[in-house]
Design brief:
By secondary structure, this protein is an alpha/beta fold. Helix content is 42%, strand content 19%. Helix 1 crosses helix 6 and helix 3 crosses helix 4. The longest helix is centred in the last third of the chain and has 24 residues. GO terms for molecular function: FMN binding; oxidoreductase activity.
């Protein structure tokens, strides 16, 4: 059975480099035989994480929708920009809200349990957003995911893509190919252990 991979970007800015990187990842994963779902966090707006709000109203429905989607996929591929050498607030807020989920009505729901994650970054600078991935990796490990070693960081992202969304540089295309291959392989190995 084809591994189910959920792909999304940590930015909702129009023309975001991380969204273009996520599109490239989606195409590569599909080429390698994965069943890919590509979403935008713009479709799941959330208030700022607030335990008082959670106590009063519960976990927001959009966080529940995301939690169900995370749980329905064996792997995640997250493409993130870097904000001041760290995680963008949109992405951190999303991760935090989903981490608050433990039940969906009468049944247990653990969106991050057993999840295999691949990380990508992009920026128009030479560091390619890689500094933010250090913090993102730490946060995701804390919520119980397994993060693969391979990652793809796209430098000078405004010049990195062709008109069709593919990478101009063969080296970058190969790097993304290796990330996607490793993610699929780790998901398949984890499925065999279950």
């Amino acid at each position: 059975m084809a591994p189910r991979i959920l792909v999304f970007s940590g930015s909702i800015r129009s023309g975001a480099y991380s969204s273009r990187t996520a599109d490239a990842a989606m195409k590569e994963l599909a080429l390698q035989g994965a069943e890919v779902t590509r979403i935008s966090l713009a479709d799941y707006p959330l208030p700022i994480m607030d335990e008082d709000l959670e106590k009063e109203k519960g976990v927001p429905e959009n966080a529940m929708r995301l939690g169900r989607m995370f749980a329905a996929h064996e792997g995640l591929l997250i493409c993130s920009p870097e904000y001041n050498s760290s995680i963008p607030p949109l992405l951190k807020n999303t991760i935090d809200w989903v981490s608050r989920i433990s039940r969906d009505g009468e049944r247990a729901l653990k969106p991050y349990a057993g999840k295999i994650v691949a990380l990508c970054s992009s920026s128009d600078g030479n560091f390619a957003g890689i500094r933010g991935l250090y913090h993102l990796r730490s946060v995701l490990m804390n919520v119980g995911t397994q993060i693969i070693t391979e990652q793809c960081s796209v430098a000078r992202a405004s010049e990195a893509f062709d008109d069709d969304g593919s990478f101009k540089e063969e080296r970058m295309a190969r790097t993304m190919g290796k990330v996607c291959h490793s993610l699929i392989e780790h998901v398949q190995m984890a499925s065999l252990r279950r």
